[in-house]
Every structure is written in structure tokens, then in C-alpha cells.
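Support request from a user on the community tier.

User writes: "When I paste my C-alpha cells into the form, the page sometimes reloads and wipes my input. The last time it worked, I copied everything first. Here is what I submitted, just in case something in the input itself triggers the reload:"
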């Protein structure tokens, strides 16, 4: 028995040495470890259900480490080469860019991912891939505002809405990415003017999250609010009676940027730079891009699928008939510092 164990051990060691030699890496290839360490800033039940399904299909256990994006980035940075992180997942292309910019992600080449995810929703170098989409749009008081009043992003900052806008703080990545996209489309001068219009239009200093802005519209604090689509859809289709009531008066408008569509962002993920279970990380990413996973996440979290071949399931399908701007979401992070300085110069706190 002892001898047999030794033989098995020797064979396993030989295979391991061969594997290391093959890919020329100093990191042992532990691709068969049966686990993927997922550092995720998404804490949704829909994600957990998808991970359970992944384990069912592949036998690979998903070991989840949770935190917000900046916490996880700090953790991966301090762990360095010894980091157990295999896959980093978060909301917002601007947050994925922060991880990329800190050299925490490595490129992935995957035919399945490239086929499922459009080029404008992933990093051109394959360091991250969009897995679901959300639009940053307008919730409006339907008793005082017509959809045509807010069918462009310019109108949100126009004198028509002086003192009538609710919006969350400037430092939130959703707003940084939106302003980054506007800089990309309009250039810095027009965008600076827009941010000054936003500040002039604020009904109150920024406070709370997107849902709080939608509720403030209902309460008459403001007539319009900037929000991500899924917050509104969740309120309109959930089982919270008060939120449901809000959405009888407050409606959703999809402003267009230069006639090309609404500003869209992603949730997504990328393989960690020092992933010990790299192959498992790629498998999970590929699984998250399948129609099954895309549908589960959309159904549970009211985001839009990233894959154009997957229709949004109910209840999100009722809000899916809009044009998304074709801009590459990879530009948002590149414009983040510029966006931050424009917003702060305008007094957007
Ligand atoms: Fe969110």
C-alpha cells in the first residue's frame, strides 16, 4: 500500500513538473485543483445561483471572497504574487479599469468569450469582459415631465431643470464613467459646461444611492434623477409595495447621446494576474457568458444580458427596447481622472 501511494505520488509530481515546464511559468499549474477563487464585488443571489450551477456542470467549486471593488483591488495588490485570486468580478468598466491599471489582471484569449461578448463590451487586450449591461438613464416625474424633455443627455443639464435634478455624488464610479463617456463623445469643453449645468440643476446636495434619487422624484424633491436602469426595474417589479407605488408616478426615460443611444455600462470580470487556478477562472468566465448564465443573471438582477444573442427575460424585457450607444466601455476608465477633475471643478461633490 505504501509503495502504491509512492508510485501515485511520483507520477503526480512528474506530471506537475511537466506541466510547469510546458508553459514556462514559475507558477505551478494547479488547473485541476477543483476550485476557483472568485474575488467579487457583486453580492447578488442571482450570482450565487449561477455559481452553484457552474459547480453542478463542471465540478469546480466557487470559493467566493467578497468586498467592494476598491477593497478587493487593495487586497489583491497587497497579496501580490501570492494572491489566491483567480477571477475578479465587479460592476462598472471604470472599476475593472482600476484593477487593470494596477496590473492585477492578465489577458485571456477565448474564442467562446470573443464570440459571446461584443468587442465594445470588453477590454481590447482581453484583461476583462463585460458579462451584463446596465443603462445610466433618467427617472422622471410623469406628472410634470414629458419623455421628450429628457431624450438627450444635454437636456438633463439644461435650464429647463434648474433646481429640479437629483443625482448621487461625483465620486461614485457610475457617474465618473458617465462623464468619461461624455468627454469621449463631446470633448472636455462641452462636458465641463454640462457638469456645471448638472450642479446648477441639483435640487439638493448629492446624497444616497440611485434608488434614493428615484424615491426623491416621487416625493417631489426633484423632477428628474440620474439612475442605473436595474434599480428602477427592480423597484417596478419587486415585492416592496412602497417601491412599486413609486413607479406608478416615476417613469424611465432613455436619453440618447448624439442620437446614437443611451450610455451603457457593464458588470464584468477578468482573470487575476497571478491566478493559481487560471484554467478554472477562464472556464467560469466562459460559463458566465453562456445564454443560460446571462439569462439567470438578468432574470435575478434586472441587468441586460451582455451577449446580443440573449434576449432579456421578464421583467427586464419590458425595459429592453432602447438603443445602446456603441462606444467602447474601455474608454470610461481612460477618462476617469479627467472626469473627476471636471466634476470637482464644477462643484459636483
Ligand atoms: Fe449598482
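"...and here is what came back when it finally went through:"
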Amino acid at each position: 500500500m505504501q509503495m502504491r501511494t509512492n508510485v501515485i505520488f511520483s507520477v503526480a509530481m512528474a506530471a506537475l513538473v511537466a506541466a510547469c515546464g510546458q508553459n514556462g511559468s514559475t507558477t505551478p499549474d494547479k488547473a485541476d485543483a477543483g476550485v476557483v477563487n472568485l474575488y467579487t464585488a457583486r453580492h447578488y443571489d442571482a450570482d450565487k445561483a449561477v455559481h452553484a450551477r457552474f459547480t453542478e456542470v463542471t465540478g469546480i467549486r466557487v470559493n467566493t471572497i467578497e468586498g467592494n471593488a476598491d477593497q478587493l483591488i487593495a487586497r489583491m495588490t497587497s497579496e501580490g504574487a501570492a494572491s489566491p485570486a483567480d477571477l475578479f468580478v465587479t460592476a462598472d468598466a471604470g472599476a475593472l479599469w482600476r484593477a487593470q491599471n494596477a496590473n492585477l489582471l492578465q489577458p485571456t484569449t477565448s474564442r467562446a468569450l470573443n464570440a459571446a461578448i461584443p468587442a465594445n463590451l470588453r477590454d481590447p487586450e482581453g484583461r476583462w469582459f463585460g458579462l451584463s449591461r446596465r443603462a445610466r438613464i433618467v427617472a422622471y416625474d410623469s406628472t410634470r415631465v414629458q419623455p421628450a424633455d429628457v431624450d438627450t443627455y444635454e437636456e438633463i443639464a439644461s435650464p429647463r431643470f434648474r433646481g429640479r435634478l437629483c443625482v448621487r455624488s461625483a465620486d461614485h464610479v457610475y457617474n465618473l464613467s458617465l462623464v468619461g463617456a461624455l468627454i469621449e463623445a463631446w470633448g472636455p469643453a462641452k462636458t465641463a459646461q454640462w457638469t456645471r449645468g448638472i450642479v446648477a440643476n441639483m435640487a439638493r446636495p448629492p446624497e444616497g444611492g440611485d434608488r434614493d434619487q428615484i424615491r426623491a422624484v416621487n416625493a417631489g424633491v426633484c423632477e428628474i434623477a440620474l439612475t442605473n436602469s436595474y434599480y428602477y426595474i427592480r423597484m417596478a417589479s419587486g415585492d416592496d409595495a412602497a417601491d412599486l407605488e413609486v413607479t406608478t408616478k416615476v417613469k424611465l426615460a432613455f436619453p440618447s447621446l448624439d442620437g446614437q443611444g443611451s450610455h451603457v455600462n457593464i458588470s464584468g470580470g477578468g482573470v487575476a494576474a497571478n491566478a493559481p487556478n487560471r484554467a478554472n477562472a477562464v472556464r467560469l468566465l466562459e460559463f458566465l457568458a453562456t445564454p443560460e448564465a446571462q439569462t439567470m443573471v438578468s432574470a435575478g438582477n434586472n441587468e441586460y444580458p451582455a451577449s446580443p444573442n440573449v434576449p432579456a427575460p421578464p421583467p427586464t424585457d419590458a425595459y429592453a427596447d432602447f438603443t445602446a450607444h456603441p462606444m467602447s466601455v474601455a474608454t470610461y476608465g481612460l477618462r476617469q481622472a479627467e472626469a473627476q477633475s471636471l466634476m470637482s471643478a464644477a462643484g459636483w461633490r
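Agent notes: The reload is a front-end session timeout and is unrelated to the input. The pocket of fe (iii) ion is lined by residues 91, 228 (CB under 6 Å). The chain is about 45% helix and 15% strand. Escalated to web team.
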